[in-house]
User: What shape does this take?
Amino acid sequence: MKKHIALFASLLITTCIYAHDHGWTCIVKQGYFIPQEKALRDMFSCSGSKGGYFIEGAARYNVWNCLYLELNASYFGKKGRALITTVTGTDCCETTCGECIKFKLPSIGLGLKYFYYFRDYASFFVGGGIKGFFAHITQDSLYAPRCDNANTAGGFIHAGLLFDVYKGLNIELFADYLGARLKCPCTDANTIPYKLNIGGFAGGVGIGYSF
Assistant: This one.
């Protein structure tokens, strides 16, 4: 997990350093992610909400006209509780329901984004691409996938608005859909589905700078 995060951070930093002299745009985003899988939403709701905040860094390059190539990396982490408890007490987090579950989901993606300018300072964008997910689940329950680490490939679709603020500085409002299924090495009949849908919907705001 730490190696993945360090790799993502190094890749984005290197890209942004390269971007300084080669016409790239670097963006940092903050958003809210809600899983598509009902079992995950129910587990997270035991700790107060069905989703959680996530962060994303991205770098894009103009390849043709209004079409951009984008590299992005994001991270989502959330604590929850198993829907049915098998032990008593609150050993690892202070929530109700069952045993504690910690869910971490870093990802890295590559895709295309197209911008349509309807004002000199404002544009609408739409895009998508492929994405790799690196899930890490820590749990003490018989009712969740017993997977320490599991990787899978999926995709993403995003849309939103971009506003040019001042001399290369811009603000982005975005809505994303992430799609992926995680095949966990779980054989216990009491666990939730063998193929776990770890995709979902995200929305938020980002700030970027065009070099």
